[in-house]
Structure to design on (407 residues):
């Protein structure tokens, strides 16, 4: 008699947190400077394959931004659809169009138009992080798909 | 190897306020505001009419000064100019607006923070109530007490971001009173910080004293501030679940 005993060995592996976005928004003697770095976000905008457009930063430097893709989360559109250089775009929403710029993978520094109080910078960063989180949840987050296949034999 | 000690001296105070200009409203006589009928303009290029001023016995308007550097020579020139362009009558409708500009944008931005507003309010009240020149002018002090509570063209609202960046920032701290606030930040038009709080005076010594006090106060305030640190922020992707690996081991 064959005695079969199954033992399950279960291990739990902690997944390592990846960095979604590194950012720094600071006031300087020449104005305000925004640093952004994210390979995940640039990969997303690049993968849409819809091309890019050039624009001039307020420091006169020529920059490139990926064209606006269709987004599942329409809430983000009003923040990124228009390339602007201040903390707010012309429609009065926080300007997050910096996220569309080419070069985010290696980190890119923008000179932001205007002068601001510290509380304005804090509010902007909170909105940036909230919207980047939404971008990740709606557009970037990989989905785990588990499929079970069974074969039934009709005898 | 010997230890090396580095001794830091107290740093010399920096002068952040670079230039100054002012506007003084009131009723002026013809020495200051003579009108040239042939040319159709005032002979004094610094004088202009102002509809908000109400001094019926004189020519109602304001003197908008040229820009002076905030150094010894600049203050001397400013004093000379003030003495030659004083109003003969001032009242509740007349203000003394001072514009100052800076040698860097960080200094300007630090004045847009709430702590400056509080520090300035406390300091200006103390200045007006304790200054001996001003104490001799009870009418000036009375008008100051009205202005500090907020009056027309000199509201208490605090909206530095929408004043300095008019495009799109209105929703942030916009005020329905626009530029008519006690402290106004017309960065995009003039690149200056404007104080509209001071009441106009017909005493040249007081006007000179107020201008110098404002410049010195702002310089001293900026010199008390510490270095502004801004660390990098790393947003992580939070993984909600741990990865579970099941190995089935059969024993026979």
């Amino acid at each position: 008699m064959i005695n079969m005993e199954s033992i399950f060995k279960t291990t739990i592996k902690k997944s390592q947190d990846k960095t979604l976005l590194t950012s720094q928004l600071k006031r300087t003697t020449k104005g305000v400077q925004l640093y952004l770095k994210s390979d995940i976000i640039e990969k997303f905008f690049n993968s849409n394959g819809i091309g890019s457009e050039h624009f001039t930063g307020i420091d006169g430097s020529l920059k490139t931004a990926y064209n606006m893709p269709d987004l599942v989360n329409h809430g983000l559109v009003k923040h990124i659809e228009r390339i602007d250089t201040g903390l707010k775009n012309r429609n009065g929403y926080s300007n997050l169009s910096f996220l569309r710029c080419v070069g985010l993978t290696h980190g890119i520094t923008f000179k932001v138009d205007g002068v601001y109080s510290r509380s304005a910078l804090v509010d902007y960063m909170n909105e940036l992080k909230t919207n980047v989180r939404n971008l990740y949840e709606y557009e970037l987050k990989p989905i785990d798909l588990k499929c079970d296949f069974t074969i039934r034999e009709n005898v | 190897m010997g230890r090396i000690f580095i001794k830091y001296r107290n740093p010399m105070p920096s002068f952040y306020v670079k230039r100054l200009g002012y506007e003084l409203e009131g009723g002026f006589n013809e020495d200051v505001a003579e009108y040239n009928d042939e040319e159709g303009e005032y002979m004094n290029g610094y004088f202009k009419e102002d509809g908000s001023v109400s001094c019926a016995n004189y020519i109602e308007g304001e003197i908008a000064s040229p820009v002076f550097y905030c150094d010894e020579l600049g203050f001397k020139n400013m004093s000379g100019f003030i003495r030659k362009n004083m109003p003969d009558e001032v009242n509740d409708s007349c203000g003394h607006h001072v514009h100052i500009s800076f040698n860097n944008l960080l200094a300007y931005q630090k004045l847009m923070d709430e702590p400056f507003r509080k520090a300035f309010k406390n300091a200006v009240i103390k200045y007006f109530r304790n200054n001996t020149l001003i104490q001799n002018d009870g009418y000036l002090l009375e008008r100051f007490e009205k202005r500090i509570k907020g009056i027309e063209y000199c509201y208490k609202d605090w909206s530095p971001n929408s004043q300095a960046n008019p495009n799109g920032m209105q929703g942030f701290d916009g005020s329905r009173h626009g530029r008519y606030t006690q402290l106004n930040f017309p960065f995009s038009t003039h690149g200056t910080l404007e104080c509209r709080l001071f009441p106009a005076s017909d005493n040249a010594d007081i006007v000179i004293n107020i201008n110098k006090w404002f410049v010195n106060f702002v310089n001293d305030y900026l010199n008390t501030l510490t270095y502004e640190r801004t660390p990098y922020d790393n947003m992580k992707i939070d993984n909600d679940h741990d990865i579970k690996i099941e190995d089935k081991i059969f024993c026979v």
Chain B touches chain A through 47 residues (CB under 8 Å). Helices of chain B lie at 72-84, 105-110, 114-130, 132-135, 138-149, 160-164, 170-173, 204-224. Chain B is about 35% helix and 25% strand.
